[in-house]
Amino acid sequence: MTNSRQISDVEQLIEEFQQSGMRELHVRADGFELYLSTNGDDAGLDVAQGAVAPVAAAPAPVAASAAPAAAPVSVAPSAADVAIPDGAEIIRAPYLGTFYRSPKPGSPVYVDVGSEVTPETEMCLVEVMKLFTAVRAGVNGRVHQILATDGQMVQADQPLFVVVAA
Amino acid sequence: MIRSVAVTQSTNDDMAALAKAGAAEGCWLWAEHQTAGRGRQGRLWSPAPGNLYASTLVRLLPGDPPAPSLALVAAVALDAALLPFTGPDRLRIKWPNDLMLDNAKLSGILLEREGDAIIAGFGVNLAHAPIIPDRATISLAEAGLAYPTPGELVETLKHRFAEYIALWRAEGLAAIADQWSKRSFPLGTMMRAWLPDGNACDGMFDGMAPDGALRLRRASGSVETIHAGDVFLI
Q1: Domains in chain A, start-ordered, CATH in brackets?
Q2: Distance of CA A114 to the CA centre of its chain
Q3: Which of A22, A41, A120, B135 has the most CB atoms around its CB within 10 Å?
């Protein structure tokens, strides 16, 4: 492929991948290799065949060859997708993980829409690899909107709650 | 410093309180009896005399590897502390940090984070194996092995954990993952992961993703990357 053709093909592949519902796509042909993932924390191809490299906070999926870099493919909603009242605060996921609204299945949720919160109020848990992180409000206010569902996989920095002044 | 108490509800809760009061990294607390120990998703960890219930504290520093990888640090440290009693062949790590003796659950590790404080809680079946409805459990005693007292094991675990924390900081997740991979079940082992959404994913163990997540290769050949869930041998 020429460079311009290569870029065009990769762009088309990314577009089709985004529309396909697939979670991962790994293409290898004629010295060209491309890896796409919907997982924003996926560090991409492992060139060292089994070695595990440290991962930056939110790496984009990468192509391991000299092919043009693929654009990040993310399913996480951004704050731009959410109608946010003026002055509202967004509580975000600390990192990729599973979002839990209660300490354990069947127990009352930490907060609900309308709950008054203080900076110390525990809003939810996010779990990854058996590390449970308590997410606290960090502000005074009232829960206006909850943007994730219990048990949902959330991405790093994904908006979880909208809190407005009480 | 290692502190001990006769009875407490949860060493993780006690360590969290100590962390809030300014305790330094590396302090340990163990209890002879724990009345409200818990596992993943708040499941009760049944108490039994003679078993280990201990927690320690890690203070995250700027530049540390990603905090979730401490789950793997805890696993390799506990594995190293128990190897003298089990030998390498009967003891294996199951993702992310369960230790399995003869394919039955020997220990549980739960990590909890508040700000820069990570509390790592360890439960090890030394003298007794609690009955857990959906999984096989075992203790060192039931396996016919000599076993340490909780106090002796905490002393060893403290040193192993400090060594692996130092390695984690100096060389990053890769060095820990390398050790973890040497002590995990072989690639190709059939596993089932129960995911937080209630669905199950069956597949062959395909190693660890670069961020420490579990990779399961399904019969179709596709690979699922799993960041949270209960994993069983099948």
Answers
A1: 1-73 (no CATH), 79-165 (2.40.50.100)
A2: 26
A3: A41
Question: Could you tell me if A98 and A135 are in contact, meaning their C-beta atoms sit under 8 angstroms apart?
Answer: no
* Residues in A touching B69 (Cβ below 8 Å): 129
Q: Are B74 and B57 in contact (CB under 8 A)?
A: no
Residues 34-93 on B with a CB inside 8 Å of A are: 40-43, 65-72
What is the per-residue pLDDT across B195-226, written as a single tens digit (0 to 9) for each? 888 889 999 999 999 999 999 999 999 999 99
Of A55, A103, A131, the CB nearest to B211: A55
Q: Is B110 helix (H, G, I), strand (E, B) or coil?
A: strand
Summarised one tens digit per residue, pLDDT across range B132-188 is 877 899 999 999 999 999 999 999 999 999 999 999 999 999 999 999 999 999 999
Cα dist from A146 to A18, A117, A162, whole Å: 26, 13, 7
| Paired tokens of B166 | 């130092």
Give the per-residue pLDDT at A45.
38
| Contact flag A54-B66 (C-beta cutoff 8 Å) | yes
Partner-chain contact B70 A132, CB within 8 Å: no
pLDDT in tens, A99-108: 999 988 889 9
Three-class SS string for A14-59? HHHHHHHCCCEEEEEECCEEEEEECCCCCCCCCCCCCCCCCCCCCC
Query: In chain B, what residues touch A154 (CB-CB under 8 Å)?
Result: none
What pTM was computed for the model? 0.77
Domains, chain B, with CATH or none: 2-183 (3.30.930.10), 190-233 (2.30.30.100)
Give residue-wise pLDDT tens across range A51-94.
Answer: 222 222 222 222 222 233 333 333 444 555 667 788 899 999 99
Chain B residues close to A98, C-beta within 8 Å: 196, 227-228
8 Å CB contact of B114 and A152: no
Q: Is A55 on the interface with B (CB under 8 A)?
A: yes
Chain A residue numbers with beta carbons less than 8 Å from the beta carbon of B227 are 41, 96-98, 128-129, 153
B41 near B197, Cβ under 8 Å?
A: no
By C-alpha distance, which of B173, B176, B166, B177 is closest to B66?
Answer: B173
Q: What is the ipTM of this complex?
A: 0.90
